[in-house]
Each structure stands twice: as C-alpha cells, then as structure tokens.
Amino acid sequence: MKPAPFSYERPRDLDAALSMLAASGSSAKIIAGGQSLGPMLNLRLVQPELIVDISGLAELKRAEVSDGELVIGALVTHADIEDGRTTDVTRGAMRAVAANIAYRAVRNRGTIGGSLSHADPAADWISALAALGARVALRSLAGARMMAIEAFVLGALESALQTGEIVEAIHVPPRAASAHWGYAKSCRKTGEFAHAIGAVLIDPVAASARVVIGAIDTTPIVVTDAAELFGGRIAADYKQRFDIGVANGLLAKAGIDDAAQRHIHVSVLKRAVLEAAA
Ligand SMILES: Cc1cc2nc3c(=O)[nH]c(=O)nc-3n(C[C@H](O)[C@H](O)[C@H](O)COP(=O)(O)OP(=O)(O)OC[C@H]3O[C@@H](n4cnc5c(N)ncnc54)[C@H](O)[C@@H]3O)c2cc1C
C-alpha cells in the first residue's frame, strides 16, 4: 500500500519545527529516521495531513557531556552510538545495545529519539535507558520539561508527548566504575524485535540495583530499588541471591497470566543478571 496524501515540510531549525507543530495540532506527524513511521504510513495506520521532517535539524544531532551526564540529541542514530561517535558514559552498555538493534540498514537511519517517541514496548532503548536511569527532555513552544524514561512511556505505542511537543534529547547519567551491567533479549530471529528483554544495573559497592523487564506488551516493569529481587539486599553475591520467584510475581502482578510467557521473561532476566556478574 501507499500512504494517504499528506503535505510535507522540512523546517530549517528547531523553533521553526515547533511553530509548525503548534500550528497544525494533532493533524501533524514528525518524521525522523522513518523506520517506524514509514511502514505505518504505508499501511495507512496513521494518516497525518502534514509530515514535519526534522531529520535536518543540527540542534538535535549533537551529543555532549554536560554536568557529568551525556546529553544525546534525539536525532542521534543507533549506528552513531554503535560506532562510538558519541561519548560513552555507560562504559560500553549503550554501544552494545545499539549494535543489536535490528539490522545495520535500520540502525543507519533509526534515531534514539524516534525509538523512544514510538514507544514500542519491544524496543531496546525504552528498557535499556530505563535501567540506566536516563531522563528524556521534551520541548514545545510552551517550554521544556524533563522526565524519567519510565514516566515517559505510558503504554504500547503511547508516550507522555503532548501535541506540539518534541523529544529534544536524552540525558544519560554516567555508570559508576563499580556498577555491573547486564542486557539480554530473546528474539525469534537475529535482528527482529525482542519478545523478552532483561536489563540490570547493579552496584554491589553502593548496594543499589535497577532492573527492567521489557517487551511485555505494555510499559516495561521498572524496579528502581531492586533489592527485593536479590533476597532483600544488594551485595557481591547478588548472582546467587537472584530470586526467580519474586521476578515471576512481578510479571503476574503486571498481568502476564501465561506461565510460559512469565518463564521466558524470568529466564531472559536471569541471563542479564548472569551477564552482569560475569
Ligand atoms: C525491520 C525493522 C526492525 C526493527 N527492529 C528493532 C529492534 O530490534 N529494536 C528496536 O529497538 N527497534 C527496532 N526497530 C525500530 C527502529 O529502531 C526505529 O529506528 C525506531 O523505532 C524509530 O526511530 P525513527 O528515527 O526511525 O523514527 P520515525 O519512524 O521517524 O518516527 C517514529 C515515531 O516517533 C515520532 N518521532 C520521531 N522522532 C521524534 C522526536 N524527536 N520527537 C517526537 N516524536 C518523534 C514520529 O512522529 C513517529 O510517531 C526496527 C525497525 C525495522 C524497520
């Protein structure tokens, strides 16, 4: 199929883009890398009157360290991160996640901001960035606001973005030298969307852990203080203390009724824990 007819604008800067979005209201759609929006247009799942192409906005392509955090523009591509063209404050975590998104052709065009905005529960950045404790910076003509990734993703293909608002950047805190990282996913075929994701950031020295169970059809389960998954405390022996019963309970509480599905998610999360401890 081909898209329904639409008007097309390519603003010269961010202010112009925001003005276009404000003037057009909900009849406009942003396009960045087009890797998710393109198929949706072709299938006529979305039929905007106006497409605002932000792919030329230099302001959104920057990545820099500011106040110790990596501020990564919405238009930075998965390939930019994979190839190390952005500073890596996560000591390899983000590079490894980027390298395993889809295929290289998708990574060349797909953007980190587009991935978050699309809010596909199976997408990698939603789970990985939530585990890393990242925040998302939003901008509209009304001003700027910032929120944690887990507050930004409201459901399947549903985010906190309001009409006229754009994802401007993602703020990623540095990963402490003592913090262990594990990321695992299960895909039917290499390069396909995951049907289970486990992401863990565990710091036995600081006795803290963030754990995410992703690709569960709705918002990922984000446990910001995950001691309960490790017998009540985070210590050097966390690998032995990982409690699959607690993980299973979290999934049941999130409405995953199918025991086989819960088993897959728990197994993938366990892989992430083992990877962190390796
Ligand atoms: C074959 C295939 C396999 C894939 N596999 C994976 C995978 O394994 N893991 C994974 O994570 N992803 C996967 N993807 C998705 C890919 O990562 C996309 O890059 C990503 O989902 C969307 O990024 P984009 O820049 O292409 O956004 P677009 O397609 O341009 O836009 C997506 C949505 O976000 C909105 N949007 C875009 N940018 C902004 C912004 N800055 N502010 C506000 N709204 C914005 C658009 O309006 C649209 O609604 C796959 C895609 C394909 C085609």
From TrEMBL:
<dbReference type="InterPro" id="IPR016169">
    <property type="entry name" value="FAD-bd_PCMH_sub2"/>
</dbReference>
<dbReference type="InterPro" id="IPR016167">
    <property type="entry name" value="FAD-bd_PCMH_sub1"/>
</dbReference>
<dbReference type="InterPro" id="IPR051312">
    <property type="entry name" value="Diverse_Substr_Oxidored"/>
</dbReference>
<keyword id="KW-0285">Flavoprotein</keyword>
<keyword id="KW-0560">Oxidoreductase</keyword>
<protein>
    <submittedName>
        <fullName>FAD binding domain-containing protein</fullName>
    </submittedName>
</protein>
<feature type="domain" description="FAD-binding PCMH-type">
    <location>
        <begin position="1"/>
        <end position="177"/>
    </location>
</feature>
<dbReference type="Pfam" id="PF00941">
    <property type="entry name" value="FAD_binding_5"/>
</dbReference>
<keyword id="KW-0274">FAD</keyword>
<dbReference type="InterPro" id="IPR016166">
    <property type="entry name" value="FAD-bd_PCMH"/>
</dbReference>
<dbReference type="InterPro" id="IPR002346">
    <property type="entry name" value="Mopterin_DH_FAD-bd"/>
</dbReference>
<dbReference type="InterPro" id="IPR036318">
    <property type="entry name" value="FAD-bd_PCMH-like_sf"/>
</dbReference>
